[in-house]
Amino acid sequence: MKSHPSLGLVLILATVALPAAGCGGGHSASGVITADGSSTVGPFTTKAAEDFRATGGVDVTVGISGTGGGFERFCAGETDISNASRAIKDEEAAICAENGVEFVELQVATDALTNVVNPENDWATCLTVEQLNEIWKPDSQVTNWNQVDPSYPDVPLKLYGAGTDSGTFDYFTDVINGEEGASRSDFSATEDDNVTVQGVSGDKGALGYFGFSYYEQSADQLKLLGVDSGAGCVQPARETILDGSYAPLSRPLFVYVTKDALQRPEVAGFMRFYLTEGPALVSSPEVGYVEAPQEVYQRGLAAIP
Going from the N-terminus, what domains does the chain have, and what CATH number goes with each? Predict the structure, then answer.
């Protein structure tokens, strides 16, 4: 299983250079490109930076401070790129505007928030949106599996989820509880999805959620649950994510780039490479997401000078 960075602004350094053809129009480039934000999108940006590597030139630093933490730095003018597992909020965009930070939003992939339990859990195969809401809503009193469904056994329920600075947390609480940030607080919250893998795999009564790629990387340690949003149980998979039937937990993934940064040939070249190679990169073992529709990448490329 691949190790992912945890909260604390871990920096992954990838030395990359601007190829002469296709990505930078022959411009030479030097300097540093800075990125921060989502732990979900971070591995994708890192993989793009590694594959962009050539014979010297540009360092791409990829920080992992969560989507919210990334936008704080981005709107303060501290980074060129902000990785995000949700769209920027109005209040975040307003701070960017106050600070004179103009940006371009680029969708780079599609993901699905995935519910997982311990492999010894032989009673649950699917949860309804209503059951997930009862478990995760603010002040929920559900602490045992038999409170989720009377047919389930008397087993304590231990919960693992995304940290509150995470876009994963924002998206999950929005679609399950009806409001971003609305959640019970008595769960193990982390920006490091490996902590959730370890917690759920080590506790028979555990339930957790994170991005689909983390399940794929740890499938031998976890059991996948389907979700029933009213049309029957659907499990997350490439097909159900792309066709929208895995609802409501499928979501787009983004990077935001400042317009000032895009005037630098190394940044424009990196982002052009990112979007051109995105469909292949996104499904690589190091990344493990689902590509966005091709027209999404074409729109993104058209926005890069």
Answer: 10-110+253-302 (3.40.190.10), 112-250 (3.40.190.10)
